[in-house]
Design brief:
The chain is 40% helix and 11% strand. By secondary structure, it is α/β, with parallel strands linked by helices. It is globular and about 60 Å long. The C terminus is likely disordered.
Length: 480
């Protein structure tokens, strides 16, 4: 048996289980919360699960219509996925299931072998240079000229294609490169007078369990954040009203919608700590509420989940002391909602405990805040998520990247709110300039980032957030 035949047989053996239980890497665009929720339901309905990283994903599914920078980041992630792989986009919630089902045959189809021969990235580089049949610059083979123009169609299936991104989604960055395309670090003085490497690493916009289109640009010295800036990528088109304020036209009582929102935030936080069973449980309760199941019918199951979560010493260990936000700082930064009502010591643990308390109150028919699940509009007209993002940026210095991810999850700013409302003081215009500079390689802040990862922190819950389980944090249902 020749080597090519052996590799083909191996690919077929890998593709068969992928088609039966796909691992889906979900890329969510600002304003596409309803599409994301429908896609998560569709993935579970097919017996699949959400992937933790590009390396383990079979399908890349884009929820919503990506902007230029968002598509460039998506192209980079696509290049990091091994075969068998498939790619699709969905822009309407009702099309999520059909698009996913249509992609499954592509995982075992003949196009996989042809695509493997064309690839020029970390999985298929052959040392012949960067120009292979016109695949440079993040282009997609087989997309046609109407990329991004859906013409009113709700979903687009893409089984294969180029998508390689030479340089991590940005062309022409300056600076000397190390082997593998990574940028060399700068040097800066440490507090003890030593010279330490300084890296400019963006978190997002494509990360599992990460707010849609959010980018936290960090400056790292060693493995600790020294500075951070936050922005949300602009929407590719008109951004609809925030889903958690309107419910996307669904007939869901305000209390049930608030409870569902808190459960969505809890599911993201649990997943980042590696407790997949608790994350899946929170998301199932969320989906039941959004499907119109009465709150009384959900309340008993939520009580069981709440007791398990509150007893978890490991979860508390992962979030204790992260992002202490005092009431005075919260007022100064424009934070309102559950983040302000959290009890001392006002850290990430206090915030998820507050979500649990307010979810119980909402399910029991208690009073629901008029300002929405994240708080009230600030006096200057900023949405409540602006204050939450301000807090995340201010509290990030001094933390490792894994702790920054937990910090952001414990505040959970909603990019739908930020994309739908103009930012104060011309911040939106500045963010768009930053986005332009990022695409064309200008600006010292983005000039030394790690290109191939595009800011993606590989491996969820690294460091403090990783699953240190009393009985395990994996997909199993063991108590923690």
């Amino acid at each position: 048996m020749g080597l090519s035949t052996a590799l083909r047989n191996l690919s077929e053996r890998l593709a068969a289980p992928a088609a039966r239980a796909p691992r889906v890497l979900l890329v969510v665009c600002p304003g596409a919360t309803a599409v994301r929720l429908a896609a998560e339901v569709a993935v579970a309905g097919l017996g699949g699960r959400l992937a933790d990283s590009p390396a383990e994903a079979d399908i890349l599914l884009v929820a919503g219509e990506p902007s230029v920078e968002m598509r460039a980041a998506t192209d980079t992630v696509w290049g990091q996925m091994p075969e068998p792989r498939a790619r699709g986009e969905v822009t309407r919630p009702r099309d999520a299931g059909a698009v996913l089902r249509g992609l499954l045959p592509a995982l075992t189809g003949p196009g996989q072998e042809a695509e493997a021969a064309r690839r020029d990235d970390e999985w298929g580089r052959d040392g012949k240079g960067d120009d292979h049949g016109g695949h440079g610059g993040g282009g997609h083979e087989g997309r046609g000229g109407g990329d991004g123009d859906h013409g009113g169609h709700g979903g687009e299936q893409r089984s294969h294609g180029g998508g390689e991104n030479h340089g991590g989604g940005h062309g022409g960055h300056g600076g000397m490169r190390m082997p593998g395309g990574l940028m060399m670090a700068d040097r800066a003085e440490d507090r003890d007078g030593l010279k330490l490497d300084v890296l400019h690493v963006p978190l997002g916009p494509v990360l599992p369990d990460w707010p849609a289109g959010l980018v936290i640009d960090t400056v790292l010295q060693g493995d600790v954040v020294q500075r951070a800036e936050g922005r949300v990528l602009p929407s590719a088109g008109p951004c609809p009203p925030p889903f958690w304020h309107t419910g996307d036209g669904r007939t869901v009582a305000p209390g049930a919608r608030t409870a569902a929102r808190h459960l969505d935030s809890l599911g993201r936080l649990f997943a980042l700590t590696g407790w997949e069973d608790a994350a899946a449980g929170a998301r199932r309760l969320r989906d039941r509420l959004l499907a119109g199941v009465p709150a009384d019918a959900v309340r008993a199951d939520f009580g069981s989940l709440r007791r398990r979560v509150e007893r978890s010493r490991t979860l508390r260990w992962a979030t204790d002391g992260i992002g202490v936000l005092t009431p005075a700082d919260a007022v100064r930064l424009g934070v309102s909602g559950p983040a302000v009502r959290a009890r001392p010591p006002h850290d990430a643990t206090a915030r998820w405990l507050r979500w649990l308390t307010e979810t119980e109150q909402a399910l029991a028919g208690g009073k629901v805040s008029d300002g929405g699940p994240r708080g009230h509009v600030a006096p200057d007209g900023s949405p409540p998520s602006r204050g939450l993002l301000n807090a995340a940026v201010e509290l990030a210095p001094g933390l490792e990247l894994s702790a920054v991810r937990l910090l952001v999850a414990s505040l959970d700013p909603d990019p739908d709110e930020l994309a739908a409302a103009p930012e104060p003081g011309g911040a939106r215009e500045e963010a768009e300039k930053d986005s332009h500079r990022g695409r064309h390689g200008h600006g010292e802040r983005r000039g030394h980032e790690e290109h191939r990862d595009h800011g993606e922190e590989q491996g969820r819950g690294e460091g403090r957030g990783q699953g240190h389980g009393e009985g395990g944090h994996g997909g199993g249902g063991g108590e923690r």
